[in-house]
Amino acid sequence: MAKKKKRARPPARRAPDAPGPRPPTGADRRERKDEVRRAREAERKRVARLAAFRRAMIFAGIGVLVLLGLTYLNRAASSKPLSAAAQSAATAAGCGPLQTPASSAPGGLHLSEGQSYSYSEHPATSGYHDPTPLPGQPRVYQAPVPETKAVHTLEHGSVIMYYRAPADGGISQDVVNALTPVANGNHATYLIPYPDLPDGSALAYTAWNKLLTCPKSITPEQATTLAQGFVDSFACTSNAPEGKLGDGC
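Above: the chain's sequence. Below: its structure in token form.
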């Protein structure tokens, strides 16, 4: 009996291969390069901003320190009471008390250049004044000066010693001679004739809104002791609105 032939099975179907990774294209590579470039640029800008901020903080700190230093250097010292020696000399000479003529003496009240002005007090120690003060030199004058300029000079922290001249029945020439080196030897100190001193006064020590008057009988020693004490108390001090602007302050 003949054997049956086995039917051949058809070959099994293979599942299709899963798609593999797509090879990068030129566009993909450009995109990755752009991403790296953008990341680097962002980091560069961040570092630059941080450095700029640090520099700004350093410069600001330096600016504050410089401003504080300039403020300290430009700050006038405080005025102080007359020394015991000056007070004793004033009493012995028969001088009046130290006066503060104005209840309020603001600074910066400027007239026009060369404009005249009549003061209610003589000598004037504050008020409206010429925009230009007296020059730093000379310190000793032989003739009166424009009072509007003198008041501006007082505003700058100066001391002015006004006197009635000997020829006008004022202080002796010995007193004038004794006060001359006081004016020349101190910062912002002047010796100036003033014929309109109040009756009974032949010598007046003035600072901004400060006045002390003395009779013609004052001696050279009394005058110089009082002068130096007055200068030490008020010259280049915050007693004046601009007490650091005087010559030599």
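The first strand starts at residue 159 and ends at 163.
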